[in-house]
Automatic annotation (TrEMBL):
Protein name per its UniProtKB record: Uncharacterized protein
InterPro entries assigned: CysQ/Inositol_MonoPase
Family matches, as SUPFAM superfamilies: Carbohydrate phosphatase
Taxonomy, superkingdom: Eukaryota
Length: 183
């Protein structure tokens, strides 16, 4: 049940990051970067990743790994988390242990924009309790061996307004199962 509650909280955190990005035109304009040819989806003439995509992916990865050590090596994501700033520096976007450290890293990605970096870092590190989320927690116990799970994070896409997590694992009879959670 702890994993399910964490996913609900993380979905709210992801939604808050997306809301902040959409609400602030200055911030929204800073966040888009065209994918390199080897990263791009061949179905599109141009394929873009946004810092919001990557930040949501890395936020989920960071907090799941922190809370559920058994899942650490099995949390993967679609987006390459490397951005190139205007100085040509390649920066690996990863959520840090503190809001201040995350803001410092984001400031480098955002070419020194303190306001945008602080705003995003605050959302990433904002504490949200399960009771703060408008949802009903199922009464049914959700027990699963974390060693049997893998998580795939698929950030916001062109045709989807939701972030999704895909869990792959084995059920008790050793048959593969797949669970998709929309954030």
């Amino acid at each position: 049940m702890d994993l399910l509650k964490s996913l609900i909280v993380l979905s709210e955190k992801a939604a808050n990051i997306a809301r902040v990005c959409r609400a602030d035109q200055h911030l929204f304009g800073l966040l888009v970067q065209q994918k390199k040819e080897d990263e791009a989806n061949p179905r599109f003439v141009e394929d873009f990743k946004t810092l919001a995509d990557v930040l949501i992916q890395e936020m989920v990865r960071h907090f799941i790994r922190k809370q559920f050590q058994d899942l650490s090596d099995n949390v993967k994501g679609e987006e390459n988390n490397t951005f190139t700033n205007k100085l040509g520096e390649q920066i690996c976007v990863e959520v840090q242990d503190t809001e201040t450290k995350t803001a410092c890293l984001l400031k480098n990605v955002l070419n020194g924009d303190h306001l945008a970096a602080n705003l995003l870092a605050a959302e990433v590190h904002r504490e949200i309790a399960i009771n703060d989320v408008n949802t009903k927690i199922p009464d049914t116990e959700f027990n699963v061996n974390l060693n049997d799970l893998a998580m795939w994070i698929d950030p916001i896409g062109k045709k989807s307004i939701k972030t999704s997590l895909l869990f792959l694992g084995l059920n008790p009879s050793n048959k593969y199962f797949c669970m998709r959670s929309l954030l």
